[in-house]
Amino acid sequence: xxxxxxxxxxxxxxxxxxxxxxxxxxxxxxxxxxxxxxxxxxxxxxxxxxxxxxxxxxxxxxxxxxxxxxxxxxxxxxxxxxxxxxxxxxxxxxxxxxxxxxxxxxxxxxxxxxxxxxxxxxxxxxxxxxxxxxxxxxxxxxxxxxxxxxxxxxxxxxxxxxxxxxxxxxxxxxxxxxxxxxxxxxxxxxxxxxxxxxxxxxxxxxxxxxxxxxxxxxxxxxxxxxxxxxxxxxxxxxxxxxx
Amino acid sequence: xxxxxxxxxxxxxxxxxxxxxxxxxxxxxxxxxxxxxxxxxxxxxxxxxxxxxxxxxxxxxxxxxxxxxxxxxxxxxxxxxxxxxxxxxxxxxxxxxxxxxxxxxxxxxxxxxxxxxxxxxxxxxxxxxxxxxxxxxxxxxxxxxxxxxxxxxxxxxxxxxxxxxxxxxxxxxxxxxxxxxxxxxxxxxxxxxxxxxxxxxxxxxxxxxxxxxxxxxxxxxxxxxxxxxxxxxxxxxxxxxxxxxxxxxxxxxxxxxxxxxxxxxxxxxxxxxxxxxxxxxxxxxxxxxxxxxxxxxxxxxxxxxxxxxxxxxxxxxxxx
Lengths: 243, 320
Description:
The complex is a heterodimer of chains A (243) and B (320).
Chain A: E1 2-12, E2 15-26, E3 30-34, H1 41-49, E4 58-63, E5 66-67, H2 73-78, E6 81-84, E7 91-95, H3 96-100, H4 110-119, E8 130-131, H5 137-151, E9 155-159, H6 170-182, E10 186-191, H7 194-197, E11 202-207, E12 210-215, H8 217-227, H9 237-242
Parallel strand pairs in A: 3-10, 3-11, 6-9, 9-10
Antiparallel strand pairs in A: 1-2, 1-4, 4-5, 7-8, 11-12
Helix pairs in contact in A: 4-5
Chain B: E1 2-3, H1 8-20, H2 25-29, E2 35-39, E3 42-47, E4 52-59, E5 62-69, E6 79-84, E7 89-100, E8 105-114, E9 119-130, E10 135-144, E11 150-160, E12 165-172, E13 179-188, E14 194-203, E15 208-217, E16 223-233, E17 237-246, E18 252-262, E19 267-276, E20 282-290, H3 294-301, H4 307-318
Helix pairs in contact in B: 3-4
């Protein structure tokens, strides 16, 4: 019951932006992909999800033993992957309840809808709101988090789940991770914040498209704090690896 | 409502169509709801409520509806306009003249249904005048035949006095269009008057649409929005011209056209026209033509919807 990235490399305009990345994620556990801005964290998320423009990579993606490398995004989603976008889209005219139930395709008990909104810091009145300019970026992010939770995916990729949300406490993020894990989901959190990475069970440090360290979040965060906070290794992974 | 006895069968058929189009037939029969039912070039029934006077007449081959809302009247329920034709071929001509007195408030809910049209022309002209501070909301839903043989030419024009507020929304989103020419024009002649004209259309097969919306901001402080949303598929054609004129100081106008296309055989275009006479005028426009927004599409596909399902959901919101 695992999601495996096997030797993934991706070029853009002749430059290697993901360099031979191999990662393993487990169901029921949370994982952090940690690193500074611009090192390729979001690219890894988009490659896993198979978004348009991120499928021309080398290497394989294996979900529960099945090679899903050639599958498009919707097929991957139907097999249990989903993505929380760093900046969720707006949907003019679409109500929150329609969005969460995918146009009433998902049958979700009203109590569960309300409880999930509460978990992300919103109340039931949001269900009738439209996902347009009337909602702030933070509100849309919370709705997107609720959507991911309600999908009960095998693996949820959360790209900077706390960005753009005012006053989202570490407790709230912890509760969301716990809820996903207790539903049996594996969680992959993309973040540049040590505090967020410390809430997970395992961390991978990424620099210049490469995984430079993996292990206990505390240990990886310590390394990140001492090395990456002040260095400029964004395009010099070998220096980063050497410390 | 009194139904002319000779028309009772036709009334029942037109009411059936009205219900299929989403209307509530019981509202047409309620004494406290103003309504008019027109089938072809005949008025089958008409009901007035306190505060308004609606009369019908026939001039040549056209039905003329003259409607006056008294000064200060607040019409509690929307005036229901049930318009349709049962014929496959022919013409229907209707002229609405609407005078809304100062301070009056009235909403209109119109359903126009042509379910059997094979070669049928529906010509409609609505001329409205709103007095000082009057408020009108006009919602027009069209339902055409699946043969594509409905030809609609609809013209709406409105004159707004000081602080009058007018909203007009035209929807043709659930059936084939056939051929459609819509012209909407707002003359904001009074200071601080407000107009909001909106058109939403879903085109299929070889449907053809021409939309022309004009906003004349003729008095200081007047404002308005012209908004058109079209989803064009198959071999359909759409041309949208949105015009806004700032003819007085301190006016504000916004013109917006969104045309979402699916397939490689559609032909769509939009032309925004903005002209101002004063440096304090503020007119803006926003236009987009293309496939469904990739990020919206991918967001929904990352939740398991197919591209078609995701497109359907996005368009449902867009055309609401």
